[in-house]
């Protein structure tokens, strides 16, 4: 096993700005990124299923809150380990996640209702909670741009469409449910396909990261 790891780490790749190698730490980061995406997708899909099929059960909404918390935490790990060339964009998505999580915690503490029900009945809360899903949409966009994945091309517009539509009461409830179901299914497809993708593809061209990192030093 050690020999295999050493061989993988000794492989030299030719990047746009020079040669680079992929370390075991790089690979571990990708595995964590993909695992957290799977957890987020499963949590989101389970919450969606409960909302669409078991909403009359009084225990359902509390379960949805727990699943939402799991989804949020897993998404945060994904945003920490994802490889994005633009550091400013990476930080922006992480800040969006933080705003969404902070808003969700405040709402959960202040509201006497289950979080999901409160957000649904008070669309203006999307102006805060929506930042969390804006961060998720950033992942979809990045994956669509880098890997030309059909499911992420569909997810990128669906998420803001559903959130903005609910915020301004533009979409009938039955259409919202259809869009939510499509979102959940395609999220599972996206996360599942990531398992089969070669790990170096998610790491990208490390010479670009190094070049961008050294740009401020060069200007100074």
Automatic annotation (TrEMBL):
The organism's taxonomic lineage, starting at the top: Bacteria, Bacillati, Cyanobacteriota, Cyanophyceae, Oscillatoriophycideae
Regions crossing the membrane: 31-52, 64-83, 95-112, 124-142, 154-172, 178-196
InterPro entries per the UniProt record, alphabetical: DUF2301
Protein name as it appears in the record: DUF2301 domain-containing membrane protein
PANTHER family: F3H9.20 PROTEIN
Alphabetically ordered keywords of this record: Membrane, Transmembrane, Transmembrane helix
Domain of life according to the entry: Bacteria
Name of one Pfam family that matches: DUF2301
């Amino acid at each position: 096993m050690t020999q295999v790891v050493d061989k993988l780490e000794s492989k030299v790749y030719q990047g746009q700005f020079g040669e680079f190698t992929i370390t075991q730490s790089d690979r571990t980061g990708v595995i964590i990124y993909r695992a957290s995406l799977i957890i987020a997708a499963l949590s989101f899909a389970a919450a969606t299923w409960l909302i669409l099929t078991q909403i009359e059960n009084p225990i359902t909404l509390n379960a949805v809150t727990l699943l939402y918390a799991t989804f949020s935490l897993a998404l945060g790990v994904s945003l920490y380990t994802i490889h994005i060339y633009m550091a400013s964009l990476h930080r922006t998505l992480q800040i969006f996640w933080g705003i969404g999580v902070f808003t969700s915690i405040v709402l959960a503490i202040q509201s006497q209702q289950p979080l999901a029900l409160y957000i649904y009945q008070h669309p203006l809360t999307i102006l805060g909670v929506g930042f969390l899903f804006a961060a998720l949409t950033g992942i979809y966009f990045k994956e669509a741009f880098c890997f030309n994945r059909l499911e992420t091309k569909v997810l990128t517009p669906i998420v803001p469409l559903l959130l903005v539509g609910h915020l301004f009461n533009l979409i009938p409830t039955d259409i919202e449910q259809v869009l939510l179901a499509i979102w959940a299914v395609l999220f599972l497809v996206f996360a599942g396909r990531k398992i089969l993708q070669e790990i170096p593809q998610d790491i990208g061209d490390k010479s670009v990261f190094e070049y961008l990192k050294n740009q401020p030093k060069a200007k100074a």
